[in-house]
Amino acid sequence: MTDTSVETKVTRNQWWDVWDQFRSHKGAMLGAIVFFIIVFAILFGPMLWPYDATTIDIRSRNQGPSWAHPMGTDQLGRDTMARVMSGGRVSLAVGMTAMVIALVVGTLIGVLAGYFKRLDGILMRLTDLFLALPLLPLLLVIIMLFRDKLSANFGPEGGIFVLMVSAIGMTSWMQTARIVRGDVLALKEREFVLAARSIGTPNTQMITRHVLPNVMSPIMVSATLGIATAIITESALSFLGLGFPPDFPTWGRLLRDGTDFLQQFPERAIWPGLLISLTVLGVNYMGDGLRDALDPRIRGR
Amino acid sequence: MLNYTLRRLILTIPTLLFISFIIFIIVKLSPSDPTGGLPLTIPPEVREQIREALGVNKPLMVQYFLWLKQFFWLEPRLYLEGAFGWDLGTEGETRLISYATRSPVMDLIWQRMPQTLWVVGTAYVVGVLIAIPIGVISAYRQYSAFDQIGTFVSMIGFSVPPFFSGVLVIVIFSVLIPTDSFWWLPSIYDTTHQVVDWESFKFQFRQMIMPVMVLALQITAQISRFARASMLDNLNQDYVRTARAKGIRERKVVLVHVLRNSMIPVVTVIALGIPGIFGGAIITEQVFKVNGLGQLLIIAIQGGDVPTVQTLTFIFAILIVLFNLVADVLYGLLDPRIRYD
């Protein structure tokens, strides 16, 4: 018992195995690289880039790509590259925050439904009901209705951000809840849970110590895929004109504005669209690789 | 099976009632005034009378039940009258009136329905017809070049949203290609166009190519992945080895034995996808300016047209619930191992 040689042996964290498996998935690595390049570019780009997203320079309007403006300028002379970068910040912020909300709600409902038998029926009926709601029409309606009220409280940008994030989050937790519930149901039958219960572990500790750590992998996978869906939803809403105010760039909004000039300047619509697609593609491939890497049956091979 | 279907059908009633109530409450919370679009010269007391006539001053529950009555009781009777020439006593009853156009909401919906059904329906059929062969081949030749390309294309179909793929094909086929070229395609869908002869059919065909292409890409992406997974599951089964051992030709083994068994889950996924594609068509219709149901919804939302919004949203919800039921029943019918009761 007092022998410490076990501790001096190099213990390999299981996350290294996950990382090795993830690294062997070419698509996932490429996706992750593309995603992080985009994230870094929009995080640090605006600090280094001399132009501001909202500065109007009417003399240099409607320019094509040049060294000064690599993506050209729009009809008011605003630099498209600066707009794309600050638009990306908003789109990614909305995507990530909405994903976190969906994940918290989904995990909570999934764990409660799986762990407490009495809550299972009612919570799963609720999930089914939410799955039967026509989400895109409802999101459009919700944003249309509450935009003005929230704008009054949080300011035009803050209000729509809060609204968008909570609306997207509250309508996309269902898949996570279902997956988590299924895993919790299976976990409950395992011996270590029985052992923990036999020494009198209370429910809250049971969930935080034993259940939650063991359902981390499906949660992480749905987190990755959730970012992708949230970004697409936000862009779709902005594209339909129900997103952020017009002078506030997001990728979807830029794409919508770009379609008005499709005949003369098609690149204006293509840049934001390409970035949405690349981000989502990267995130989806990352999710794919993560799913394989977190699955111990595949990892052993 | 019949028992199960009936039970599920009865269960849809409370589900739909609950959903209709949620939709009604959300839409009713809107601050929009039904008389807001009328000329300012109308005196306030007349305005009040108009509101009274539209029934907006009644208690919420009364309005809700009135809407349900109009939707589930009055409208079906009207169709029966229209279809068979019966008299079911609908004379003098008020139908659900759109605030924006002052015409019955259901008439608006029936006007818009054909365009949506044409575009969405064609896209769905095309998408499924492309997806299943792709799924079969990529499963049969797993990890081949074809499979890799198929995986990549379906990943693109998942990731590229329709509002970008639509814009992209418009840029390629309508902007970059000169107007007089054979490959040029119209970017705006002309719904007044009527097919009377070969020339007009060709035009109709050309204007449908792009919206159908955009929608079909997404459908193909989902269904081909599913068909592939399902084929892979079945290809390793014992009965496939038995069939080969009996000396059945490979072609027949794959296309008859394996394909038929792997289509069971695929068919249910196809059924489940139908309502989703109506929602997705909202964006595609906006991109190609198709005046279908999706565009009607967007216009109604922007104009605060409460009756139209709540009815359309509810119709989308009915589609989801209905096709969920269809998928479950189909699964039971196709797979004799599945017994619900």
Can you tell me about this structure?
The complex is a heterodimer of chains A (301) and B (341). By secondary structure, chain A is an all-alpha fold. Chain B is an all-alpha fold and 341 residues long. In chain B, helix 6 crosses helix 9, helix 7 crosses helix 9 and helix 10 packs antiparallel against helix 11. Classes of the chains: A mainly alpha (301), B mainly alpha (341). Chains A and B meet through helix 5, helix 6, helix 11, helix 12 and helix 13 of A and helix 1, helix 5, helix 6, helix 9 and helix 10 of B.
For the structure shown, list the relevant keywords.
heterodimer; A: 301 residues; mainly alpha; 14 helices; 75% helix; B: 341 residues
The radius of gyration of chain B is: 25 Å
Global mean pLDDT of chain A? 82
Mean pLDDT of chain B: 83
Low-pLDDT segments, ≥5 res of chain B:
none
Q: What overall form of chain A do the CA principal axes indicate?
A: globular
The helix/strand series of chain B, from N terminus to C terminus, equals HHHHHHHHHHH
Tell me the β content of chain B.
under 5%
Number of helices of chain B: 11
Helix content of chain B: over 70%
SS elements, strand count of chain B: 0
Spatial gap, N to C terminus of chain B: 7 Å
- Tell me how many strands of chain A there are: 0
DSSP helix fraction of chain A: over 70%
Element order of chain A: H for helix, E for strand:
HHHHHHHHHHHHHH
SSE blueprint:
The complex is a heterodimer of chains A (301) and B (341).
Chain A: H1 5-8, H2 14-24, H3 26-48, H4 80-115, H5 117-132, H6 135-154, H7 156-170, H8 174-188, H9 191-198, H10 203-214, H11 216-239, H12 251-259, H13 267-294, H14 296-299
Helix pairs in contact in A: 2-13, 3-4, 3-13, 4-5, 4-7, 4-8, 4-11, 4-12, 6-7, 11-12, 11-13, 12-13
Chain B: H1 2-28, H2 44-54, H3 60-84, H4 105-140, H5 145-159, H6 162-176, H7 198-235, H8 238-245, H9 250-288, H10 293-302, H11 306-334
Concise structural overview:
Chain A has 301 residues and is an all-alpha fold.
